Amino acid sequence: MQKVATISIGEKTVEMPVISGTLGQDVIDIRKLPAELNVFSFDPGYGETASCNSKITFINGEKGILLHRGYPIGQLAEHASFEEVIYLLLHGELPTEKEYKSFKHTLITHTLLHEQIRNFFNGFRRDAHPMAILCGTVGALSAFYPDASDITVPAHRELAAIRLIAKIPTITAWAYKYTQGEAFIYPRNDLNYAENFLSMMFGLRSEEYRINPILSRAINRILILHADHEQNASTSTVRLAGSTGANPFACVAAGIAALWGPAHGGANEAVLKMLTHIGKKENIPSFLAQVKDKNSGVKLMGFGHRVYKNFDPRAKIMQKTCHEVLAELGIKDDPLLDLAMELENVALSDEYFVQRKLYPNVDFYSGIILKAMGIPTSMFTPLFALARTTGWVSQWKEMIEEPGQRISRPRQLYTGYAERQFVPIEKR
Ligand code: SDX
Fold first, then answer.
1. What was the pLDDT predicted at 261?
2. SS3 sequence of the chain
3. Whose CA is nearest to atom 55 of ligand 1?
4. Shortest-distance atom of ligand 1 to CA 230
5. Which ligand 1 atom is at minimum distance from the Cα of 306?
6. Which residues are the active-site residues?
């Protein structure tokens, strides 16, 4: 029996289908609302609107659940390589050993950049934010691959997806090297995805880079935790850009731009700045008083989420990883971690945050781990973008392959002037 929702305006009543997914809330299909009732729905920021159907990621915000193609994030973070998660998000299943071997080979043979792209970096000032370099360079990639630019061809889509996912670590690491004035380090075919990123970030031409398994395992897990997250702001940006038929390189560049904001992917960098600003535990009460004062404009960065009204499951795994990495690196007491944990304890027992269901999100602890690993603050969001490129590309591919896919075009509630006549300047 088809479930329906009825809406009545005045004498008119319309029934609209209520559709169930595999998991999560049902949705009301409102597409006939304008024709039947001559009204639109109104949902600024689309916080209560399903913009698409998707099989990639599911979040239950009340219960703090995150699944990728049905697999709980905790199991993937604990047991999977990032390459397995890339395959899972792109193709819908975990790879068999044979598929895994072939996929890793495909990825590793697409990590190099066209040598002309090296010149792109020289156009930036050395103190450019790496996100600016990422945005510009990824957007320009389409100019280098005319051989696979027809997104209606499945093979072209697959190749573009592989190129973006395989090359983003090289671009990200080179953006860092450029700002340091150090020579670029090329990807190596004998390293895995996480190891290669570390080697390109920290390796030097003058010596063999020795992989620290603690760091590569931590990077592998951090990449998995940031890979995809339903229709967040940057993924929605990628989908909207892709709905016009724009090439996937341009779409991912748009996603990078959206992720950069401090309310989104820029939060990890903002958390570190916030902790440094607070300085010591004694300052927590006065800082939180500022946060509660709406006029201050001060937010508790790394806290709160549009969907999670419980713990972000990624934050719990990130906190656990934080302790592991610091212990394995022999860092006994990291003042920033101590301060972060005290801030979390105080906030979680403060009515202001409890009442608003504000819990730590994925960004609260990630910056502390990355800093302990020697990754500079300016590279926190680029690392988030590196990981999320897999989610963006997977969601872009799913959108393009959706039967009946159309250009996205939201409507509006107009609150401006009604029609009025032009007044010549001498009469104004
Ligand atoms: C990411 O969407 C995703 O999935 C994103 C992400 C992903 O993987 O893609 O998970 C990654 O972006 C995580 C979020 C990182 N951002 C931050 O940590 C920045 C700090 N957080 C806030 O800016 C905020 O919580 C947002 C942007 C994350 C969510 O904003 P919402 O949806 O507007 O927050 P809300 O509706 O839950 O707010 C409810 C109340 C409001 O106050 P009242 O009007 O009820 O009095 O809580 C307040 C908000 O002002 N509030 C905060 C707060 N977050 C919300 N107050 C202080 N500090 C905060 N961090």
1. 95
2. CCCEEEEEECCEEEEEEEECCCCCCCEECCCCHHHHHCCCCCCHHHCCCCCCCCCCEEEECCCCEEEECCEEHHHHHHHCCHHHHHHHHHHCCCCCHHHHHHHHHHHHCCCCCCHHHHHHHHCCCCCCCHHHHHHHHHHHHHHHCHHHCCCCCHHHHHHHHHHHHHHHHHHHHHHHHHHHCCCCCCCCCCCCHHHHHHHHHHCECCECCCCCHHHHHHHHHHHHHCCCCCCCHHHHHHHHHHCCCCCHHHHHHHHHHHHCCCCCCCHHHHHHHHHHHHCCHHHHHHHHHHHHCHHHCCCCCCECCCCCCCCCHHHHHHHHHHHHHHHHCCCCCCHHHHHHHHHHHHHHCCHHHHHCCCCECCHHHHHHHHHHCCCCHHHHHHHHHHHHHHHHHHHHHHHHCCCCCCCCCCCCCCCCCCCCCCCCHHHC
3. 304
4. 4
5. 32
6. 305, 363
